[in-house]
Protein 1
Amino acid sequence: MKVKDPTSETAIKLIQSATELFNDFGYTGTSINDIAKKSKLSKGILYHYFQSKDDVYLFCLSECINNFVDFMERNISKISLSKETMIRVVELRFVFFDENPQYKNLFHNIISGKPTHLSKEISEIRQVLTENNISWIKLILTEINLGKDVLESDVSLFISILQNSSTFLLDAESDKKYRQDMINSIVRLTIIFLNGLREDLI
């Protein structure tokens, strides 16, 4: 994705407008005209910063992931296998979307790779999230010894699937009790997976 000076005031205005539109109406439901109209800027100015609608969309997805990862890193000082830390990690995912609802559906699209004609580019953007997950999973794995046939990649895949699934299960409007029940369930499943089915587990 190519963008000229994304930190300029005009570019920021375009990106904010595009992010809200793509989040609310999706890729197919948003046009260049829509973005120009919402940002109160001309299509000519938009094309000065971005080469195409695809570039605008991919940049918005990249901003979503980068801001999400930055938020998680700023709010988690230490990763461990404690139940408290696991709860904190899961809770923060939902706090981020509560505070940044303009990213919620974009995040879903990143996980699901939509639209499909951009799946390769979206996969590359998603790699930032994958690498972040792997980095903290490695820290957790310093506390346990993996079983004979268990690979580090197995742990990473399981936790990524569990966390990404949880984002689809809950939204900013979820009932508080339902949300807390789901958070507790996600944490319990993660700890069970990492510790095994010991008698004294939880």
Protein 2
Amino acid sequence: MTLISTIIDLEALYGEPLEASILKETDRVVPVYRALIEASPFATLATRGAEGLDCSPRGDGPGFVRVADEKTLLLPDRRGNNRLDSLRNILHDPQVALLFLIPGVGETLRVNGRAVISTDPALLDSFAVDGKAPRTVVVVTVETVYFQCSRAVVRSDLWNPDKHVARKSLPSAGQILAAVSENRVGGEAYDAGLQERVRTTLY
């Protein structure tokens, strides 16, 4: 196997970045980037902790990540599985990265920054849905923002409904759990109640 082991070799192989790829990076949420964040119902949150890396899916209605100002994003931590991987990592290392996706749009938006975890009552209440507030809000101080061109989405044909995968063609959540836990959890009973559990525990 031939490996790249130095920055010099890497840059020699790929060449100089295009001017646009450099100029598109900002150190704040400018209005055109704010429009993308406010249209996005889904993002991934990347963190780093003592036990390694984590990349967690986050989603809600469009604009669920609130732009408080040009240097601050607010991300409610909605109900989940209580593993707390992202939050544990933030306490260890505040550096975070967000990748925003917008259904039907090829471009994505990347944000890098530093995060803290807030339990401010007024802030939590401002994110309440159906009277249910998140337990915490991740407050991200923005360091860099830039959009990613559409090539990855175009190559993957991600938003093409004709390419959607039938859920039943893949192992179910219950089957996956049963397989990896040696049948301690999961199975048909887990699958039977899954949709209702998700519906009633969204917030």
